[in-house]
Write a structure and sequence with these properties.
The chain has 447 residues and is of the alpha/beta class. The chain has 16 helices and 18 strands. Strand 10, helix 7 and strand 11 form a beta-alpha-beta unit. The structure holds zinc ion (2 copies). The site of one zinc ion has 5 residues, from loops.
């Protein structure tokens, strides 16, 4: 796509022996709260193929039942990389999980108290990638002392992020930990309710082991580039899918071996040579702007400040969104591109594109049939969204082809999400809202 930046010369030779793997390492199983019953390993394997994803996190390895499925259904294919037993091919699975830590920020210890707005009690989500089933089971043993692992695929654990990293690394130093959706108000390390302004503050003595952050749906890399303190961190993108269609709505494109790779090689690729990330439009994320869902109030950070961050309707404190927190921590102008920054593209899931263009619901038979036809013709969803030529696509489906051309050119209108409400994309009616700018850059601007 047009966003690709020129690759440094020294990497080019290596790349000939590599291929691009699309990886989504943050998903959930049917055992996590508010997640679809359809999230089984078999279905995940199938949906990954349909989307064009080569490598998927298992999600929820901390849950005993899910771990049992992982052990029953998968086998190791290369060190730390798994696939369906007897298949020798198909989707590669990496052991992954997300945990919700609850702790007292003032005392710096884990807390059994429930979250309350006015206390020092905080919650923070962290993701872990484990290098083997043995490591994952060892991690589960240690973490089970801090919470009920059976209660949720994303368990609630009484410990600080510092204690958590230390505990996981005591089991296996190669386990890879990163803060999940770093900017979301209640559960993100930099979220408006967490109050941390840096990785050092949040992880204390263990901060040196954090090498990456997940940007989450409501922010994209260009927003994160405005904070110089994040230059040393890889920016991870994952879907955090709670149902099959959401798998891959954000993902990473990793340059790795043509004939396969190990867990350690994958971590090296994440840290050092991510080729590109695939991003949700951040305005579409449900915490991009500030606001109050119940009051129907949505405000840009600038407008929220005019009201002193107080809701003009109910006079309570607004839920401060991701863009506002970025503005608070940014020490660079909007549009700044750091040296060596990994390029990215925005994408809209294909079912949503078809639904927008046709005016039919995303779960309807019409959308499903059109989707299946396009997948048959182009091989996978990412082939349609990222690789197909505008001519081919328009020949297959004129409306969808034109909409995808507009998405690739960032020429669409979005009403930003706020306080838990997803943003609304309008592909068919190109008015000036996005072009007017919510502090975003167009893909062409990175050329
Ligand atoms: Zn989370
Ligand atoms: Zn209100």
């Amino acid at each position: 796509m047009q966003a690709k930046r020129t690759m440094p010369k020294k990497r080019r030779k290596e790349e000939r022996m590599n291929m691009k793997h699309i990886a989504d390492l943050h998903i959930h199983s049917k055992y996590a709260g508010a997640c679809s019953e359809q999230l089984t390993l078999k279905n995940l394997d199938a949906v990954a193929k349909e989307k064009g994803i080569s490598t998927l996190g298992t999600g929820d390895f901390t849950h005993p039942e899910w771990m049992r499925s992982i052990k029953e259904e998968l086998e190791e294919r290369s060190s730390g990389v798994y696939s369906f037993k007897g298949s020798g091919s198909g989707t590669r699975f990496i052991l992954s999980t997300e945990v919700s830590l609850v702790f007292n920020k003032e005392s710096g210890t884990g807390s059994k108290q429930l979250f309350s707005k006015d206390s020092g009690i905080k919650k923070m989500h962290n993701c872990v990638l484990a290098p083997s089933i043995d490591a994952a089971e060892g991690i589960n043993d240690v973490l089970s002392k801090h919470g009920d692992m059976k209660a949720d695929g994303r368990p609630l654990l009484s410990m600080t992020s510092e204690e958590f990293v230390e505990a996981v690394r005591c089991v296996d130093k190669n386990a890879f930990i990163f803060p999940a959706h770093a900017w979301t108000p209640w559960f993100g390390v930099f979220g408006s309710m967490s109050g941390f302004d840096s990785i050092a503050e949040a992880y204390g003595s263990q901060a040196k082991h954090i090498r990456a952050i997940e940007t989450g749906l409501s922010s994209d890399p260009s927003m994160n580039w405005r904070i110089s303190g994040l230059d040393d961190y890889a920016l991870i993108s994952g879907s955090d899918a709670h149902s099959l269609p959401k798998v891959g709505r954000e993902a990473m494109v990793l340059e790795m071996g043509k004939d396969g790779f190990s867990f350690d090689q994958m971590i090296d690729a994440i840290i050092g040579s991510t080729a590109m990330t695939i991003e949700f439009y951040p305005e579409e994320g449900k915490y991009h702007f500030d606001g109050h869902r119940r009051c129907g109030i949505s405000l840009s950070p600038k407008d929220a400040l005019k009201y002193n961050n107080i809701c003009p309707k109910c006079r309570r404190k607004l839920t401060i969104g991701v863009l506002h927190r970025i503005e608070e921590l940014a020490d660079r102008e909007d549009g700044y591109v750091p040296k060596g920054a990994v390029p990215f593209v925005h994408a809209v899931p294909l079912r949503e594109v078809i639904a927008y263009v046709s005016g039919k619901g995303v779960g309807t038979e019409y959308v499903n049939n059109s989707y299946t036809n396009l997948i048959k013709r182009f091989g996978s969803e990412f082939n349609v969204l990222l690789e197909s030529s505008a001519e081919e696509l328009t020949a297959a489906d004129k409306g969808v082809g034109e909409a995808i051309a507009d998405i690739r050119a960032n020429d669409i209108n979005i009403i930003p999400g706020y306080d838990g409400v997803f943003g609304i994309i309008d592909i068919t009616r190109k008015v000036a809202a996005r072009k007017g700018g919510f502090g975003q850059k167009r893909i062409g601007d990175f050329g």
